Amino acid sequence: MLRAVEPGPEGRADLAMAMFRIAKPLGLRPEELALEVAKAVPAVPEFTEVQADRGFVNFQIEPRLFAERTLASVLTRKERFGQGHPRPERVCVEHTSANPTGPLHIGRSRNTVIGDTLVRVLKMAGWSVTSQFYVDDVGRQAAMLVWIWTTPVEAWPPEVREAAKLPPDGKRPPDVKADHWYGRAYPPTAAYIKEHPDAARSLAELSENMESGKLPKEEYRRIPQEILEAILASLRRMNASFDEFVWESDFLFDGSVERVAEKVRTSPRYHRTEDGAEAVEASDMGLPKESPWVYFARSDGTFLYPARDVAYHLQKFSRFDRVIDILGEDHKLHARGIAALLDAAGEMRRPEVLTYGFINLPEGRMTTRGGRVVNLDDVLDEAHERAVAEVKKRREDLSTEEVERIAESVGAGAVRFHVLRVQPEKPIVFRWEEALSFEGKSAPFVQYAHARAASLLRKAAGSDTGPRLEPSPPSKADIPQAPHPKEIALVRALSQFPSLIEKVAEGRSVHLLALYGHEVAERLNEFYQELRVLNSEPEVRAFRLALVSATRQVLANTLGVIGVDALERM
RNA sequence: GGGCCUGUAGCAUAGCCCGGAUGAUGCACCGGCCUUCUAAGCCGGGGAACUGGGGUUCGAAUCCCCACAGGCCCGCCA
């Protein structure tokens, strides 16, 4: 694709056209063609200057008109600035879907940050979006939770009891969240079962009773449910939430898994091993040639996870036009297996799979069983604590409650922004100092710019404790003959928001939103440093107030899309 | 061994899909700026032949091939 007109280099041109490609077939020198073209462009009010420069045709945009149109658009559309036209398709975004066996670690939070941000940006772009969390309450790890926690603590295997480090009375202290509490026994139980075949057998039996419905689901969902609630509480701190929860076991009981299996058995891909295990052949769908099998049922007849996941996806396709899954890169191959099973089940549609790289620690990969994990809650708590110290350092006038509230927004925002700003496929090495940075490319930097703008607007309206001034769009007469370069740069940044939303929604490149937020904040800070607003000359005051108001709005919209609180003061 | 992804200043990143005009930003470093709108800020400076090697092109960080390095995966687990 040939992009005829593109942004020119900073300071030289607002828009530029390269002549090289066009010049060649015409047998002309690009430099000459540029001169010709520049001469031929008719004078329009949008451009102040059209010039040839070494094979490029450079355009300068008329700043007053540009400012007038941009500010009018922002100030009339307000929180809807950037909103795309409604689109008829329904989209489902499944993300996070963490097994409710313990607390979320920071690595898994990347799934949430990417997924929740994508949901927000797709909504802004005009899609109707439903977010789903797939709750795994089937299989070994779910059974393990039931197995250990329905047994009185005194009856636990001693090594499990010791490794779980429960208090002497074995009761959960009120300040310990359910995910952290139940999660304690999980790794030692897993280790114990590995060592003890008899335990493994009784676990398998329990698992079977769960799947067959002998054990009522209310019974075995109790603990996963509690853990899930606790996980959701942590996610809420990061402004992430879900529209729907889909329980894996439901597909077992409504017969949909069985129906999938029946369909698949008629497929040419279908394969049954000598032992009676069932699989599908998928060497043509990216599975390794050495083991092209996607197993969906064990030889004892019980179903494997892929069978349930396919049933789940068929349900998604029955309700949605587009299905997006956010997965860790370790699930890439499984996603191909699901695609193969969907194919065998006669479903031609495929989920769009977005994968992201792991968050590792400087000393290596995070492992729950090795005890080398950083929990999301710990990161959020630490972020909160550091933010409290920062806020107190600069604001002595605020109440304790307000300091707490601001610190929570700043801390959680910093964490979310830190994870968001990196292109998803890149691995991240988690370092505390970087994750909890409150300056530079960070959420607090953007929040700070928003708070500055908000403060200016309140003061312009009369009082720092009152409502913000809401200027109407400036008329051309209000706009200075020659706006300051800092003003133009700011207008230019604001004008890019709608097309950015479009681009991010289209390409699912959510990290660009964080970068854009930083960009706008930086432009505002530069403007703020150089030019006065409140006590400026009367001929520019109205324009600057409108510019500040528009900037605040765009910052608020950007922060809204990335899921970070836009603060009035900090 | 095979497959997918990544490799850009001391560190962390954007740009790569869709090739263009002196490679952008943050942290760190050096030097400035709080008696007027919040210094979580601003201004200035040093620091990169974009992992290496070939190729395509008027032009390559960007496209193609090879090599090297790192991440992830290759279960009748989920």
Secondary-structure-derived class: alpha/beta
- Computed Rg: 29 Å
What fraction of residues sit in β-strands?
5-15%
What is the straight-line distance between the termini? 46 Å
Number of helices: 21
Notes on the protein architecture:
- With 570 residues, this protein is an alpha/beta fold.
- The protein is built from 21 helices and 14 strands.
- It has helices at 20-26, 30-40, 63-77, 106-124, 140-149, 158-164, 178-195, 197-212, 217-237, 248-253, 256-265, 305-319, 332-344, 376-394, 400-420, 432-435, 443-461, 485-495, 497-507, 511-530, 538-562; strands at 6-7, 15-18, 47-53, 56-61, 90-94, 128-135, 244-247, 270-272, 278-281, 293-297, 322-328, 352-356, 359-360, 428-429.
- The strands form four sheets. The protein has a five-stranded parallel sheet with strand order 7-6-5-11-12, with helices on both faces.
- Strand 8 and strand 9 form a beta hairpin.
- The structure holds one RNA strand of 78 nucleotides.
